[in-house]
Design goal:
With about 350 residues, the protein is of the alpha+beta class. It has helices at about 5-25, 40, 250-260, 270-280, 305-310, 320-345, and strands at about 40-45, 50-55, 60-65, 70-75, 75-90, 95-105, 115-120, 130-135, 145-150, 160-165, 170-175, 180-185, 200-205, 225-240, 285-290, 315. A 9-stranded antiparallel β-sheet has the order 1-4-13-6-7-8-9-15-16. The protein starts with a helix and ends with a helix.
């Protein structure tokens, strides 16, 4: 067996072992959540003809074709709670596509809206899906708090649960039962911490101008329709009228007690270690490390100095020196092979 193929297979095997180690370390029993059918909790947002519901009304397909994308939203707005769905993303060539699972009140508070996002960013065939999380409060879009990551699995192969826990003091983003991001409210944040009632939304749409490599790769409708599937939808919160200042106290007390007792309401030491491993291995941009944009990190940022050294001033991950050495070694092996071939001619 030649040296190049031996090195390549060894590197691939090590990478697979690392991914499996992370997956095993962070996987445990799934959350026990009560789900709701589409008819009981949701309504169409746009592209109704591209929204396909299952016979039992528990699963929804959102399609994107050359004519339109599609989306749905919760029928109510909520004052805090836990919001979740199992999602399976489109496969194959998905460049330019965005699948979003998020909370917002932008339809009601157009200039002072709050928002919490999962946005999944499609890619060219052979490249893995990426995604970002973000938070806005009171229309603070100029102070976006986005982070970007890779996934440790192929999200188009099977369903995975994506969840947002939103309380008066904390926001947690989960994938399955792995917390990937925690935002703890600080007094200095003021209205930047979401506080007004929000609804839960899901959409698929054409974002060719920015989603993949800054717009370099566009949606190719030769592969349409692009289908994102949502099932086991969960809405755990107090329905609220966004124009009323007083929330139903009985509901609020009941939900606060329920949230406090549920397994997703607090992070165990094992989960906190898993979150640290995820962020150290798969996060490739963080606003907390973007010193050009924020010379002083926003108050909620918890800066890990060990992780900080891996990022540029732009908040993006530095070029991986280990990766560079691997390709340098690969180049040396290829040169040696070429020299042997020339000697044999």
């Amino acid at each position: 067996m030649d040296t190049f193929h031996s090195l390549s297979r060894k590197a691939s095997f090590i990478s697979l072992l690392l991914s499996l180690h992370l997956l095993c370390a962070i996987h445990s029993a799934a959350f026990n959540v009560e789900t709701v059918t589409f008819n009981k909790g949701f309504s169409h947002l746009f592209g109704e003809g591209n929204t396909i519901r299952s016979a039992d009304d528990k699963t929804v397909q959102l399609h994107l074709n050359q004519y339109t994308g599609s989306g749905f939203k919760s029928s109510d707005l909520y004052n805090y709670g836990f919001f979740s769905a199992k999602i399976k993303l489109p496969a194959e060539y998905t460049a330019g596509i965005v699948v979003a699972f998020y909370m917002t009140n932008g339809d009601v508070f157009r200039k002072t809206h709050d928002e919490l996002d999962f946005e999944f960013l499609g890619n060219i065939r052979g490249k893995r899906w990426r995604f970002q999380t973000n938070m806005y409060g009171n229309g603070s879009t100029s102070r976006g708090r986005e982070e970007r990551y890779y996934l440790w699995f192929d999200p188009s192969k099977e369903f995975h649960r994506y969840s947002i826990l939103w309380t008066t003091n904390i926001i947690l983003f989960y994938i399955d039962d792995v917390p990937i991001r925690e935002i703890v409210r600080k007094d200095e944040m003021g209205a930047d911490f979401p506080s007004k009632p929000m609804g839960l939304y899901a959409t698929i749409w054409d974002a060719s101008d920015w989603a993949t490599s800054g717009g370099k790769y566009k949606v190719n409708y030769k592969y349409a329709p692009f289908v994102a599937q949502f099932t086991d939808l969960a809405l755990h919160g107090c329905p609220a009228d966004p124009l009323q200042e007083v929330v139903n106290s009985d509901c609020a007390a009941r939900e606060d007690g329920q949230l406090a007792s549920d397994d997703y309401a607090s992070i165990t030491p094992k989960q906190r270690n898993a979150m640290k491993r995820f962020r150290g291995k798969y996060m490739y941009y963080s606003y907390c490390y973007d010193t050009i944009r924020y010379p002083v990190p926003p108050s909620e940022c918890v800066v890990d100095l060990a992780i900080r050294q891996r990022f540029k001033d732009t908040g993006r991950l530095k070029f991986d020196e280990k990766h560079h050495r691997h390709f340098k070694k690969r180049g040396e092996v290829m040169n040696a092979r070429n020299n042997r071939n020339q000697e044999n001619v």
